[in-house]
Every structure is written in structure tokens, then in C-alpha cells.
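To the wet lab folks,

You asked to see what we're planning to order before we commit. Fair enough. Below is the target structure as C-alpha cells, and below that is the sequence we designed to fit it. If anything looks off to you, flag it before the synthesis order goes out.
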């Protein structure tokens, strides 16, 4: 991700030294800044999820690529995740990756993970390790490592989520798409929104008439100064009849051209940022049967 698509926000993590059996080295904590993808579109705080920070043990460029790949792999496992930044009430994932030689032909691949809250307080710790051929480690790409790490991280995160013994009643919603988005935002934003709303007790349906709420994104991009653009996304929530329930707005100025081309995980970050407001609007609609289910 280019530097024009990243910005720095004050780090929320403090210093702490914690010990886990078999891995008593403290995991590094950022002391100055945490990179956040596309923060200009995240004025509306979202909630929950995990912020994947760059792990220790990898060179800087590979560590950043690994964090991006791991966030994507976690989203594939229905864990809200972004690399670097966070939403309100997010947990932060700190990590260390090591390859310990086991003779001449193998290494022990070690993933040491810790979840903390915004104050730097440890929430949970997990150590995963496996023996792999040395040549696999020497050829390992960030995406390959992320695929190996994702199951353990997802289990660590999901273990902190409250369990329930009652069935969850999901509100059916229809996603009407996003218009006006540059680059591939018209495709990537709706895809990202699906995973966000489905973690907030909503179910995406393909029939507008079967929905309790319709969610539509409208984006505008206007030049405001040399090298600057004003970007606004309005998430309009309506009943299937077209009656408006409310609008969630994200807006700010960003470097010109930042959103041309592939959005990547910026789409997930934007969708997560809007998720809470959309959920609140949908919750205002009385839970009556949708039109398709009426007799």
C-alpha cells in the first residue's frame, strides 16, 4: 500500500512484559505511531474486530505485507480485521514469528500471539508451532505465512467473544450496492459490507421484498485543492417501500487519486467504520414480517 494511502494515528498501546510458558520474551509494542489504511474515511467509529499489527521477526517490508495478508485471511474466516488501524473497542494483535533450526533440514515455525485492549492490557495469549522443511521457510511468502497463522489467530480471537445458548434472530437486509465509487469500490465495498453486517445479527437476502431494511451506498468525490479530494459516502437505510430510516455519513479530504484502482483492505476498513451506524438504524425498524412473508 502506498504512503499516500496510509497515515499515522497515536498509538494506544503501552509497555508491558508478560510471560507465557515456553515463550517468555515480551512481544514488541509500538511506541509512537500505528499505520491505519484509509483513515480519512473512518471518521465514524466502528466497534469490535481486531487490529493486526506488524509482527516482530520479519523484515519491515515483509512484516507489513504479512499484516495485510493476515487481516485478509481473518476476514475470510469471518473475523473483522484490518492491518494497522483499529475501531473503537477493537482488540490489538501483537506477534512474533520465528524459525528455530531443527537439524539441517527442518525448522520449527513459531507463532507467538497476544491480544491486548486499547490500554495495552493483555487479554489472551497463544503459542502455535510446527516443524516444516527448511526450504519451505526459505521460500515462504507473507501470504503463505498468513495462511498458516490465520487458524490459530481466529481461534484466539473467537475465544474472547461472548458465547450464547440462545438462537440469534437475524434481521434480513438487502444490499442495493454502492454508486459513485472510483476504482473497484463499487464491487469491493459491497463485498466487504456483507461480512460486516452478518457479524451484527443481520442476514443478507437477494430479494428486496423479503428484507426488513435496504442498505444503499452513495459516494461522491470532488476536487477541493491541488492534490486534494473531498470524499463522502452516505449509507442510506430504507424500508423496502423506499421510506427512509436514516443515513450514515463518512467524509473527509484525502490525497487526490488515493482510491483509484483496487481498494484492497481499505474497503473492509470503510465497511467496518460504517457498520455500527448502519446496525443502529436497522435496529430502529420494528421487527415485523417483511412484505414477502405476509399473507
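Sequence we intend to order:
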Amino acid at each position: 500500500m502506498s504512503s499516500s494511502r496510509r497515515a499515522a494515528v497515536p498509538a494506544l498501546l503501552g509497555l508491558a512484559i508478560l510471560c507465557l510458558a515456553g515463550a517468555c520474551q515480551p512481544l514488541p509494542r509500538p511506541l509512537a505511531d500505528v499505520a491505519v489504511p484509509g483513515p480519512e474515511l473512518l471518521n465514524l467509529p466502528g466497534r469490535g474486530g481486531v487490529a493486526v499489527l506488524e509482527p516482530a521477526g520479519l523484515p519491515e517490508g515483509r512484516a507489513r505485507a504479512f499484516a495485510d495478508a493476515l487481516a485478509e485471511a481473518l476476514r475470510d474466516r469471518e473475523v473483522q480485521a484490518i492491518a494497522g488501524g483499529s475501531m473503537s473497542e477493537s482488540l490489538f494483535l501483537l506477534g512474533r514469528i520465528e524459525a528455530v533450526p531443527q537439524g539441517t533440514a527442518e525448522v520449527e515455525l513459531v507463532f507467538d500471539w497476544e491480544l491486548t485492549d486499547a490500554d495495552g492490557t493483555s487479554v489472551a495469549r497463544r503459542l502455535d508451532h510446527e516443524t516444516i522443511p527448511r526450504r519451505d521457510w526459505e521460500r515462504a511468502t507473507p501470504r503463505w505465512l498468513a495462511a498458516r497463522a490465520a487458524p490459530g489467530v481466529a481461534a484466539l480471537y473467537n475465544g474472547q467473544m461472548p458465547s450464547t445458548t440462545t438462537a440469534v434472530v437475524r434481521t434480513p437486509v438487502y444490499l442495493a450496492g454502492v454508486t459513485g465509487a472510483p476504482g473497484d469500490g463499487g464491487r469491493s465495498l459491497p463485498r466487504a459490507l456483507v461480512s460486516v453486517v452478518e457479524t451484527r445479527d443481520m442476514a443478507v437476502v437477494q430479494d428486496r421484498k423479503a428484507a426488513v431494511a435496504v442498505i444503499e451506498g452513495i459516494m461522491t468525490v470532488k476536487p477541493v485543492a491541488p492534490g486534494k479530494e473531498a470524499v463522502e459516502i452516505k449509507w442510506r437505510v430504507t424500508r423496502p417501500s423506499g421510506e427512509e430510516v436514516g443515513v450514515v455519513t463518512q467524509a473527509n479530504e484525502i490525497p487526490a487519486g488515493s482510491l483509484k484502482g483496487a481498494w484492497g483492505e481499505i474497503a473492509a476498513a470503510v465497511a467496518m467504520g460504517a457498520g455500527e451506524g448502519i446496525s443502529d438504524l436497522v435496529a430502529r425498524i420494528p421487527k415485523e414480517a417483511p412484505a414477502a412473508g405476509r399473507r
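Structural context that might help your review: Helices lie at 60-76, 134-139, 142-158, 185-198, 265-283. Residues 109 and 130 are 5 Å apart (CA to CA).

Thanks,
Computational group
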